[in-house]
């Protein structure tokens, strides 16, 4: 187990020594224990009656340190980021200090004189942070959910209130988790525990920061964005560890390679797969990018059997059940085996610069808002006819959209990202299980008139919707938990909060649809060839359905059987769905069955009932 973990409120426990043993099993590393609150983690520092444990990375720690030294507030004793962060918190106060910190991190700050614990999750939510309050009032917290379960202070019970979210989206969104009684901080949130009071509030909001960006001419915006991207990349390269990057041919990935090569003082180490299957092989696009950026390139031979054999490791690495991430895990594990300790990733590029297909679909749907004036009966009839004439999941998605009452972003975006729909939930879940659509409700609040996100350009609102759902809770979470399990540091320059703010502030006309990601490609003019916008596409899909019906058949059946026997699920409906998957040729069906299999195997592994 790795990361940060701790307990606040020892006095509520029976048997203090047993609790301390429990904490030592929950995490390892440095920390503090003052009899009221204790925490452990990879980086810690104590100062007078204050203490701090930090997990993750603060990219601008040297700059923050110089600012503190200039004020003469603190004489530093170490070169650690944890001492810098603690000094900043004590010198400037909580939120002013957090505003100056850049990076992906979680931290626990104990202010001993006030008996106050503060837990903080980074702006973009790259590093998770879970917490559980016992019946006696004590607070347990950890960056890994499995750590809380290992404490034996958290009942191993499935949170049926979150089951609909898990089934519908393949993940559970903050503040809920799949475990009853365990909560998670959202991106840019913090928790303060003092005496018996626990309060959670937002310390950073992407729309708020974007609206504070000065209005610029398009040329000035591109110059500013290039400078911001280069600074973000150079700061994240500040590490003595071996750095590497996977090349896969996608435009955002290739652009990041060019960006990092420009920011680095040494040749970048890049990697790609040389495989026996077209879907796995990425040699040609990777070679082109490597030649252009002048990287030291490595082609790693891998077979279909190698990928099939990676499934157990992927399941072991899964801290929370997420329907995405197998491809990312294979790439990360291959990098780790090659000696890479810090991996650069392009996650967030497609979301910040309108490169994902969901941006085009959302724009098209916004132009179809006039369909809401049609009678609902007629729209539902058209939807049913569409499914009849063109069976498949995408047709069902279109039908679901037509059957709705509104065509605004808050209503259409969740449908675009769903794995299952309302009628599926009615069949798959027991009658007494809540079937709330929490993502939809959250986006309605986020994008409502009067809220700051409502003042952003339309495509930036789509980005916010992605950040609040698919990007943060699925893609980033799956990549992060695999990296943690593999002992691999992860750096995501496109998710630097200054890059995010600059991208959100850009008008739609500069992002879309003249060419693929024109704002990103244009900002990196001179580094990225214009032809990449036309030739660099997402890599082809892997034959997941074939593996699930072949080499992984027993594992798939086992996961589904566990789920059939799980409280809150309808076993007969799952059996019917399984038979349909075995007979159906719908190329997207595997995604749905994969998410159910992963959930079942995770529940069994962690003993949830």
In short:
The chain has 609 residues and is α+β, with helices and mostly antiparallel strands.
Mean pLDDT: 89
Low-confidence stretches: none
**Strand order, largest beta sheet:** 2-3-1-9-8-10
Instruction: Provide the helix percentage.
Output: 40-55%
CATH superfamily label of the domain at 208-354 and 466-535: HUPs
Quote the beta fraction: 5-15%
Helices and strands, with pairings:
Blueprint: E1 5-8, H1 16-26, E2 30-33, E3 37-41, E4 43-47, E5 50-58, H2 61-71, H3 81-92, H4 94-100, E6 103-111, E7 116-121, E8 130-133, E9 139-142, H5 145-150, H6 163-169, E10 182-184, E11 189-194, E12 197-202, H7 206-211, H8 218-236, E13 243-246, H9 251-263, E14 269-275, H10 283-293, E15 296-302, H11 304-308, H12 311-317, H13 326-337, E16 342-344, H14 349-352, H15 357-367, H16 376-389, H17 393-402, H18 409-417, H19 422-428, H20 438-446, H21 458-468, H22 470-486, E17 489-491, H23 497-505, H24 518-523, H25 532-535, H26 544-549, H27 553-564, H28 571-583, H29 589-606
Helix pairs in contact: 2-3, 3-4, 8-9, 8-23, 9-10, 13-22, 15-18, 15-21, 16-17, 18-20, 21-22, 27-28, 27-29
Q: How would you sum up this structure, described in words?
A:
This protein has 609 residues and is of the alpha+beta class. Among the domains are: 5-204, Glutamine Phosphoribosylpyrophosphate, subunit 1, domain 1 (4-Layer Sandwich), CATH 3.60.20.10; 208-354 and 466-535, Rossmann fold (3-Layer(aba) Sandwich). It has 29 helices and 17 strands. It has a six-stranded antiparallel β-sheet. A six-stranded antiparallel β-sheet has the order 4-5-6-7-11-12. Strand 14, helix 10 and strand 15 form a beta-alpha-beta unit. The radius of gyration is 24 Å and the shape is globular. The protein starts with a strand and ends with a helix. The mean pLDDT is 89.
């Amino acid at each position: 187990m790795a990361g940060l973990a701790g307990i606040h409120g020892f006095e509520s426990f029976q048997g203090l020594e047993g609790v301390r043993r429990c904490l030592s099993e929950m995490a390892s590393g440095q920390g503090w224990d003052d009899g009221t609150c204790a925490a452990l983690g990879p980086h810690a520092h104590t100062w007078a009656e204050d203490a701090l444990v930090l997990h993750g990375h603060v990219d601008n720690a040297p700059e923050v340190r110089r600012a503190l030294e200039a004020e003469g507030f603190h004489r530093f004793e170490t070169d650690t980021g944890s001492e810098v962060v603690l000094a900043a918190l004590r010198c400037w106060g909580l939120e002013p200090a957090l505003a100056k910190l850049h990076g992906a991190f979680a931290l626990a700050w104990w202010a001993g004189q006030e008996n106050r614990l503060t837990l903080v999750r980074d702006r973009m939510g790259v590093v998770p942070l879970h917490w559980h309050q016992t019946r006696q009032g004590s607070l347990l917290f950890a960056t890994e959910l499995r750590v809380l379960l290992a404490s034996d202070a958290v009942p191993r019970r499935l949170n049926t209130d979150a089951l609909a979210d898990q089934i519908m989206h393949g993940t559970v969104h903050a503040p809920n988790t799949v475990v009853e009684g365990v909560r998670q901080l959202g991106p840019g949130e913090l928790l303060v525990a003092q005496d018996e009071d626990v309060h959670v509030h937002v310390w950073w909001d992407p729309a708020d920061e974007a609206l504070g960006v000065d209005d610029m001419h398009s040329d000035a915006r591109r110059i500013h964005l290039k400078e911001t991207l280069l600074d973000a990349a150079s700061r994240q390269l500040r590490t003595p560890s071996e750095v590497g990057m996977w090349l896969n041919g996608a435009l955002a990935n290739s652009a990041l390679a060019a960006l990092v090569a420009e920011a680095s003082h040494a040749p970048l180490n890049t990697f790609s797969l040389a495989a026996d299957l077209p879907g796995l092989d990425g040699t040609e696009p990777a070679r082109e990018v490597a030649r252009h950026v002048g990287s030291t390139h490595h082609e790693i031979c891998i077979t279909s059997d190698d990928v099939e054999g990676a499934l157990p490791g992927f399941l072991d690495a899964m801290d929370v059940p997420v329907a995405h991430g197998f491809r990312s895990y294979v790439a990360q594990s291959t990098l780790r085996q090659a000696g890479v300790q810090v991996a650069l990733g392009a996650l967030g590029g497609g979301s910040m610069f309108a490169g994902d297909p969901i941006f085009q679909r959302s724009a098209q749907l916004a132009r179809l808002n006039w369909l809401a004036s049609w009678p609902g009966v007629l729209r539902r009839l058209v939807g049913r006819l569409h499914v009849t004439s063109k069976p498949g999941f995408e047709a069902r998605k279109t039908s679901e959209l037509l059957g709705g009452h509104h065509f605004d972003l808050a209503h259409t975006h969740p449908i675009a990202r769903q794995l299952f729909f309302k009628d599926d939930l009615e069949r798959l879940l027991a009658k007494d299980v809540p079937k709330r659509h929490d993502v939809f409700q959250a986006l309605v609040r986020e994008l409502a008139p009067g809220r700051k996100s409502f003042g952003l350009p339309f495509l930036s609102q789509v980005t916010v919707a992605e950040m609040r759902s698919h990007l943060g809770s699925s893609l980033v979470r799956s990549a992060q938990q695999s990296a943690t399990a593999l002992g691999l540091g992860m750096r995501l320059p496109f998710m630097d909060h200054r890059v995010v703010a600059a991208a959100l502030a850009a008008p739609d006309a500069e992002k879309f649809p003249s060419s693929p990601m024109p704002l990103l490609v244009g900002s990196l003019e001179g580094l990225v060839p214009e032809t990449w916008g036309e030739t660099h596409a997402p890599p082809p899909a892997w034959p997941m359905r074939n593996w699930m019906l072949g080499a992984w058949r027993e594992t798939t059946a086992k996961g589904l059987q566990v789920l059939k026997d799980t409280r809150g699920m309808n076993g007969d409906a799952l059996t019917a769905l399984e038979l349909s998957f075995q007979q159906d040729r719908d190329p997207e069906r595997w995604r749905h069955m994969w998410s159910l299999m992963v959930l079942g195997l995770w529940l069994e592994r962690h003993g949830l009932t």
